[in-house]
Amino acid sequence: MSVTPRTFHLIAPSGYCQNQAAAQLAVRRLQEQGHQVTNLQTIARRSQRFAGSDEQRLQDLDLRQVEADIVLTVRGGYGATRLLPGFDAAALAARLRERPLAICGHSDFTVIQMALLKAGGQTFSGPMLAGNFGAEVVSDFTLDHFWRALTSPEFTLEWPTAPQDVDVSGTVWGGNLAMLTSLIGTPWLPEIDGGILVIEDINEHPFRVERMLLQLAQHGVLARQKAIVTGSFTGVKLSEYDNGYDFDSVWTLIRELTGLPVVTGLEFGHHWNTVTLPLGAHGQLRVAGDVARLTLSGHAVLREHS
């Protein structure tokens, strides 16, 4: 697809980017496509395992005066949780409502996205610089869905899934399951009523995923949702000990426990192919036969340059 040149502003609120070559490759690719990339010093910045000190990484999140089209996280890892007490989500959310920025990332960045969502700010859960734009071979699927989400006031995702009767609408939210669960009992977990919760994770065995979903259920989060959509759960190997216990077993239990539809199979998360989701957008979720369709609308999109 033809893409208008944009300005990407990099932030690194989490872990140090070990794959420096991938990040630099991503920057070169973006520049070769006519885009501008700013705040490049975040790529090499390091303090212990983090992409800079807490103060430096917190400064990355002060985007009130940043003039760019897209804010892109360098990578995930760990570290954003440390920043939450000093993060002025309300101020940034107010700026986003006044002058939208397409802030995109996933994984550890989910906690920042949830704090913003609770304050009324929308972001995009999608690709990051090193892992996606800097992949050895970039996924056309990922790029197409990224630009579609950022430029289309309404768009529809379609994917194969297990047959069930689903026709619901609500606020689309979620992201990395471990990070969502880590916010229980904190001031930064949004209270979404009638939502469509989309989840993904990496290196989490089915029993850990089940345990986290049970925690969300026991905290009352799932009772307020209309549906759960499961994305990619990668990096896991089952063993003989599991004896048939797998992710399908988890989804079956959660359906039985909550009465919610659990719509599986969305390519979303820690995977070469990933869609981009506007968190806080309105979603219409339907399953007809073995095909799921999620139509998203009501999110801010990139403005056309004059």
Distance between the amino and carboxyl termini? 20 Å
> How can the largest sheet be summarized?
7 strands, mixed
- How many domains? The number is 2
Number of strands: 13
- Radius of gyration, taken over Cα atoms and rounded to an integer in Å: 19 Å
CATH architecture assignment of the largest domain: 3-Layer(aba) Sandwich
DSSP helix fraction: 25-40%
Structural class: alpha/beta
CATH top level assignment of the largest domain: Alpha Beta
Shape type: globular
The name CATH uses for the topology of the largest domain is Rossmann fold
Q: Care to describe what's here?
A:
- The chain has helices spanning 20-32, 54-60, 89-98, 110-118, 129-133, 140-151, 177-182, 206-218, 247-258, and strands at 7-11, 36-38, 70-73, 102-105, 123-125, 154-160, 166-176, 195-202, 225-234, 262-263, 277-279, 282-288, 291-297.
- By secondary structure, the protein is of the alpha/beta class.
- The protein has 2 domains: 7-151, 3-Layer(aba) Sandwich (Rossmann fold); 155-297, LD-carboxypeptidase A C-terminal domain-like (Glucose Oxidase, domain 1), CATH 3.50.30.60.
- A hairpin with a 2-residue loop joins β12 (282-288) and β13 (291-297).
- α8 (206-218) packs parallel to α9.
- The radius of gyration is 19 Å and the shape is globular.
- The chain starts with 6 loop residues before the first strand and ends in a 9-residue tail after the last strand.
- The relative contact order is 0.15.
- The mean pLDDT is 97.
- It comes from Erwinia aeris.
- This is Muramoyltetrapeptide carboxypeptidase.
- Its EC number is 3.4.17.13.
- Belongs to the peptidase S66 family.
